[in-house]
Amino acid sequence: MKGFFITIDQGTTSTRAILYDDKIKKVDFTQVEITQYYPEEGWVEHDLEETWLSVVSCVSNLIKNNSLKPEEVVSIGITNQRETVAIWDKKTLKPLSRAIVWQDRRTSNYCQKMKDEGIEKAIKEKTGLLLDPYFSASKMKWLKDNLELNKNSNYLLGTIDTFLISKLTEGKSFFTDITNASRTSLFNIQECKYDEDLLKIFDLEDIQLPEVKENADFFGKTELFGGKIKICGVAGDQQAALVGQTCFDPGLVKSTYGTGCFLMLNTGRDLVKSKNKLLTTIGYKLNNEITYALEGSIFIAGSSIQFLRDKFKFFEKAKESEELAFKAEKNSNVFLVPAFTGLGAPHWIPDAKGAIFGLTLNSGIEELTLATLESIAFQTRELLDAMESDGGKISSIKIDGGMSNNSFFSQLLADTLKTEIYRPKDIETTALGATYLAAIGSGFATKEDLKDFWKIDKKFFPKNDLDHKFKTWQKYLKKLID
Predict the structure, then answer these.
(1) Contacts of residue 97, Cβ cutoff 8 Å, sequence gap at least 6
(2) CATH number at residue 114
(3) 462 falls within a domain
(4) Using 50, 70 and 90 to split pLDDT, how confident is the model at 152?
(5) Sign of the CA dihedral 143, 15, 424, 287?
(6) Coil, helix or strand at residue 295
(7) Residue 273 domain-assigned?
(8) How far apart are CA 309 and CA 419, in angstroms?
(9) Residue 479 lies in a domain
């Protein structure tokens, strides 16, 4: 009997379910967009019931559209938006609040207060993370305090992977994977366990935390789709992309362009501590062996194109941004700093705001679109420079995510970064990585088998020198944040 894999990709702006065959080739997919809620300035929320129903809808339709029987599905893989925090009732599994999304900045003052008290150093030493609203712990603290929860309350807190696993298994499984756990600010990445000191720092000693598993493991079974289907692979979206790009060797780099941009370098067994405000994180854990990574996070990438589409009405579809950029005056001095939800690495300024510089009467939607694409490339350059300063040796980068479909942007990256850019045939490597993990976790494949599945679509080589424009953009950035 031919085997299939179903991967749930629960992202920031949509949920997708993807069907792969036994050669890990994409057969079909379904997708549902997720509503973004902004109840106050700097707040970003998701309706957890909507998120859950989107998962059920996507998986059900995928099974129905392909006349699948549950016994034909080898296993399910899950990948998810990291750092987003969910809270739900332990018995009924009903959400108790909207999810606080990773982009949310409501805990900025709380984090700043702890920074002022000198607490950040201890957190960074144990977790590899900075003290920032981006990470899960301060969000958990906010929910606990503002929903007036106590240790006797019948609730569960977790990241989106844990919420979905709990719902899929009808409450039988309360698990997370090691990559999602490593982004909570509660997990000691050297000792690979929740840290009592960190729980105390965030006043979360009385909450129940999910059991942490390897990325390819048994996370339970779901019986919601007509029969029993195992869940055997789970990873946060960026670590899943690292696996999906088969970056299994130290020195390999992937950069994902979705809602945000996330550049990740495999550092093997070496836990590299950044001097440039990059994050040290767990890349994945397989067969009881941990692989570490160095990561740079940009909060705004593809969402800036979405911003031009939805707020400025520059175009109806994001892919049209490529055509506009081609038409722009290439020597335009319009520059954008897309700090719509603060600045991530290497600056970490949560309260920064976006700005446009250099507008003239000759500036049109073409130049603004070009400036938006350039701003993402320039932010990536900052990450790459920081990574190399920390000792990373990078000769090429594998890119993925929706924006990598834009060949103009891909060439812009190669020019800005002065390095070769590889785009795979399947750019949805986040889902692909979760599928690889599900294949390993179910015993269907080994890590070595997977290297043969990755195929290149196109290489982009540096052609133009954009150093001057990059330095000009940096000057405007400095004006904004000083």
Answers:
(1) 48, 87, 143, 147
(2) 3.30.420.40
(3) no
(4) low
(5) positive
(6) strand
(7) no
(8) 30
(9) no
Q: How many domains does the chain have?
A: 1
Kindly state whether residue 17 falls inside one of the protein's structural domains. Answer: yes
pLDDT in tens, 425-441: 888 889 999 999 999 99
Which residues have a Cβ under 8 Å from the Cβ of 113 and sit 6 or more positions away? none
Binned at pLDDT 50, 70 and 90, residue 482 comes out as confident
Residue 234: CB atoms within 10 A of its CB come to 33
Supply φ then ψ for residue 108, to 5 degrees.
-60, -50
Region 148-159: what's the mean pLDDT?
76
Instruction: Tell me what the mean pLDDT of segment 123-145 comes to.
Output: 93
Q: What is the distance between the alpha carbons of residues 80 and 231, in angstroms, rounded to a whole number?
A: 14
Helix-helix angle 302-310:365-389, to 10 degrees: 160
Taking only the tens place, the pLDDT of each residue in 9-64 is 999 989 999 999 988 999 999 999 999 999 998 899 999 999 999 999 999 999 99
Q: Which domain holds residue 51?
A: 4-237
Cβ–Cβ contacts within 10 Å for residue 429, how many? Answer: 29
**β-pairing, 253-257 with 221-222?**
unpaired
CA distance 252 to 273: 17
Residue 433 makes CB contacts below 8 A (sequence gap 6+) with 79, 235, 239, 240, 241, 242, 243, 244, 245
CB atoms < 10 A from the CB of 268, how many? Answer: 17
Q: What percent of the chain shows pLDDT beyond 70?
A: 98
Residue in the block written with tokens 């960026």: 238
- Tokens 């702006």 -> residue: 13
Q: Are strands 73-80 and 45-46 parallel, antiparallel or unpaired?
A: unpaired
Burial class (CB in 10 A: 0-12, 13-18, 19+), 22: middle
